[in-house]
Amino acid sequence: MKNFHNASHLLSNQVGLQARFRQDGYLYLKQVVSRQKLLALRRQILGICQKNHWLKPGEKLDDGISWTTPKVEGEDDYFAVYDEIQKLETFHALAHDFSIIRVMHSLLGASAFPHPLSICRLVFPDSELWATPPHQDYPNNQGSEDLYACWIPLSDCPREQGALEILAGSHTLGLLPLKYSLGAGHRQADLGEEAAGLEWTGGDFALGDILVFHSLSVHRSQPNSTRQLRLSVDYRYQAEHQPLTERCLQPHFGRLSWEQIYQGWRSSELPYYWRQKSFEIVPWRPQLQELPDEHLAEAVRMKRDFDQQRLALKKKYDRQSMLLKDTRKESEHAGEKTRF
Ligand SMILES: O=C(O)CCC(=O)C(=O)O
After folding, report:
1. Cα 325 to ligand 1 centroid, rounded to whole Å
2. What does the pLDDT read at residue 185?
3. In the chain, is it the N or the C terminus that has fewer CB atoms within a 10 Å radius of its CB?
4. Pocket test for ligand 1, best of 45, 82, 219 (most atoms within 8 A of CB)
5. What does the angle CA 325 – CA 326 – CA 330 come to, to the nearest 5 degrees?
């Protein structure tokens, strides 16, 4: 696979930055966002994961070592953690960080603003069937095609931890047909002949690096083959006076209201900031997310494989927990003996 082109040297060259983005459909920018801010957010999120018994007891919180059967979007256990993350002011505030806004201003003009729909991804090891499939963002957001995502890992994120990859130049292919997939969105782009000449590009991210990409750029992630949870956030930006759909103004998954999310926030400027922006709300087009009729058999097969794999994994993780409990009991017992 080709390595990302590092466009960091173009950060103060608007014409150059725009030309690179037009050519590749993405920008890989190194050391853009404050590592301290990202680390602080990471710790808040891992604190929530720890409270919900997702992390290995006795390990450093910052390492985020996973210790439970993989959870995936849509499950109650996943949402118990995710809803708490959605309430974090720092998580939503990061979308407005000047380090990112500056890049979006260069690409989209001075009116560029983030959608309030902010996304955090919690990607477990041992869940390769659920790795993000190749897809375009446009069918999930709709509105303006000039909608650019910013993907930010909340740690160093080498390829093997499931870093995002881009099919460079795929934004020029137009909207691709869909087929079923497990993983975020349950849909993947059906990459036809036209995509055959394009190359997947990727790389190892360091904390502070970002990936910006076009709503038609095909992207995917590798499975997470480390022991750590892969934490990342993704935000989307567009210029004012462009169309957008109502769902981009709602919290991700629509489980909480903004009132619930905003409780206890310190900033008075962040809540409902988008109400000061001008844009046209356009209807959602369900046909852009439709799957071919034949997808059902494939969907059932994939889900069955996933369920079987999870059952085996549950046994593995339950055994690990038992072993850890036994070891702890033994060392407590040994401690008691030496005290007497
Ligand atoms: O983080 C991931 O694995 C998926 C991210 C993604 O698909 C996106 O940002 O659009």
Report:
1. 36
2. 79
3. C
4. 219
5. 120
149 close to ligand 1 (CB < 6 Angstrom): yes
Q: Give yes or no for a contact between 73 and 127, defined as CB atoms under 8 angstroms apart.
A: no
Block residue for tokens 């997702």: 54
340 has pLDDT over 60: no
Euclidean distance between CA atoms 14 and 9, whole angstroms: 11
Give this prediction's pTM.
Answer: 0.94
For residue 204, give the nearest of 44, 1, 66 by alpha carbon.
1
Ligand 1 atom closest to 185 (CA): 7
pLDDT digits (tens, 9 = 90+) for 185-206: 789 999 988 899 999 999 999 9
Check: CB of residue 267 under 8 Å from CB of residue 145: no
Please tell me whether residue 28 adopts helix, strand or coil conformation: strand
Residue 48 structure tokens: 């929530």
- How far does the centroid of ligand 1 lie from the alpha carbon of residue 211, in Å? 11
